[in-house]
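# nightly structure sweep
# worker-07 picked up a monomer target from the shared queue
# config: single-sequence mode, recycle default, output format = structure tokens
# input follows
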Amino acid sequence: MARPAVDYERHGRTYAAHRRGDPRIAAAIRAALGDARTVLNVGAGTGSYEPADLAVVAVEPSAVMRAQRPPGAAAVVAGRAEDLPVRSRAVDAAMACLTVHHWDPASRGLAEMRRVATGPVVVFTFELSALPEWQQEYLAEGLAVEAPRFGDLEAIGEALGGRTRVVRLTTPADCTDGFFEAFWCRPEALLDPAVRSAQSMWALLPPGSEARIVERLRADLRSGAWDARFGYLRSQDRFRGSLRLVVAEP
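# output follows
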């Protein structure tokens, strides 16, 4: 069976507007890069988490995503994680943000990151089983498609080798990066088709699935059923959920 994949030439046009890097997540990624001076950002997209104080080179396969990088962003070259157009040990560190699940196979892209970096490799990803309970319930149909693509943290660490640690991040209530968990206390956001257009899962669903998921959420918000069960989340300022940094030292 073919591995499900998202065509970012069709589905990547709204990422610059709705997937803006959150500064608190960016600070954690920057800290994990340590004293690196040169960094390769793999599967870089629009460049949301590229540290401004480091010399960054980005690799991104999608022309649509490359075109959304802002003025002054790091230099970007066309290329795939699985076959990086970079010589071995060319940079101090490598980073990949919310992209490993798009690589096929992920292990090859991770090995390529290790090949080109002399220092830390930092992977920002999700541990889907730790998403908020309501998202696991309402988005179950989509998460069943996503879960095999994400794999597990142990597999990422094994592919990178060396000394590996996992940093568990919290998701702020006002998170500016529009992935699912950003809206753990703002469920109404997922009713907005523009928000969903910048989340790759929806592009993998069979016809009719997105409409069913959205209508169920809309109905439960309108009736108060969602708030009766999960409304306590609205008063919290952060959520300890699925966000993970896998940091591998050589």
